[in-house]
Amino acid sequence: MNTQVMTAETEETILANIQEPYKRASLAYKSTPSVVQVGNIQIGDGHFAMIGGPCSIEGLEKLDEVASAVKDAGANMLRGGAFKPRTSPYSFQGLGQEGLDMLSAVGKKYDLPVVTEVMAVDQVDLFDGIDMYQVGARNMQNFDLLKAIGQTRKPVLLKRGMAASIEDLLMAAEYILAHGNPNVILCERGIRTYETSTRNTLDLSAIPVLRSKTHLPIVVDPSHAVGKREWVESMAMAAVAAGADGLIIEIHQNPDEAWSDGRQSLYLDEYKALTKKVQALHTFLADLD
């Protein structure tokens, strides 16, 4: 359904006839895969996003080194945390506005669109130099934040909450869509189960299930799912095989000294090797179609 040419009356009729509680996110509303434009790249319907960067922005020089490695690896988007939702109030909380400015500048230098997490309604207007908002797992049902982001047209990477069902995720996306922003990308990042060997449990089945329910692109975060760098590659490749539209992976030049999430961050050379494997697998699977 082309929402650009819908009248309000026509759309109201269409929405009323959709049985799913998530209406604009459903395939009944739009039967073809959506493609979201983020800076100079597209995500969805065969357009693959390889996103890399540090958990936390730690300074301009370090971020520049990582961004250079992301570009050299052949990836096409940069991530970095400026505002950090930490489990402990005593952990590093991020560089804030200074970090946003660094991320924006480095992204422009290397021609890489950038994504970073927004945590509160009063931060939304601070992200002018950022190409895509990230709504983290802990804020997936922060409805005031979802409404505020919905009133912008900026792309949004919406992460699934740790205890959220697939329908919960789609209903969160619906808040953004219903408030006028069609540029939503879903992110599976692992859910909380009884298993303690990994940080979370990556729900790879969410990819085909979401495909059967929604037109929105799907990105996978294997870093937060497994919590240990030695398992990131296998889950990243599995996500591509399952049909993900992109990967968001944490990397660092010296993970042992990272200010946050060093244990799950890949070394820069590991990320480059993984990017080549991911691109080869994605191309192979596309050729099968």
Brief overview, please?
The protein is an alpha/beta fold. It contains nine helices and ten strands.
Characterization of the model:
With 289 residues, the protein is of the alpha/beta class. It has one domain (33-288): Aldolase class I (TIM Barrel). The chain has nine helices and ten strands. The strands form two sheets. It has an eight-stranded parallel beta barrel, surrounded by four helices. The protein has a two-stranded antiparallel ribbon with strand order 1-2. Helix 2 links the parallel strand 3 (49-53) and strand 4 (77-79). Helix 2 (60-73) packs parallel to helix 3 (97-109), helix 4 (143-150) crosses helix 5 and helix 8 runs parallel beside helix 9. The longest helix is centred in the C-terminal third of the chain and has 21 residues, at 268-288. It comes from Aerococcus viridans.
Q: What is the number of E strands? A: 10
How many discrete domains?
1
- The portion of residues forming beta strands comes to 5-15%
Order of helices and strands: HEEEHEHEEHEHEHEHHEH
- The number of helical elements comes to 9
Helix content: 25-40%
Extract low-pLDDT stretches: none
User: Largest sheet at a glance?
Assistant: 8 strands, parallel, barrel
GO molecular function: aldehyde-lyase activity; transferase activity
Organism: Aerococcus viridans
Protein name: 3-deoxy-7-phosphoheptulonate synthase
Keywords: Transferase
